[in-house]
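Subject: design request, 70 residues
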């Protein structure tokens, strides 16, 4: 589902956060997640971050925001 959001990493991150949290990420959150995905997978900006997406999604589910209600 996340990959269907588009070819750009930021689009896929937006989709993942929307699915998990029910909202779009803040600009700071988006940048942190983009940096994580690129560093984790060694991506070169050519869309080679697919190995990072399962780990990124798992980290969203493990976050305190997902586990606790405000």
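Subject: RE: design request

Done. Sequence follows.
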């Amino acid at each position: 589902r996340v990959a269907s959001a588009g070819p750009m990493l930021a689009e896929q991150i937006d989709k993942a956060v929307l699915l998990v949290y029910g909202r779009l990420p803040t600009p700071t959150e988006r940048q942190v997640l983009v940096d994580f995905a690129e560093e984790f997978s060694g991506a070169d900006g050519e869309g080679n971050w697919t190995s990072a997406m399962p780990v990124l999604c798992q980290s969203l589910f493990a976050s305190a925001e997902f586990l606790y209600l405000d």
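The mean pLDDT is 86.
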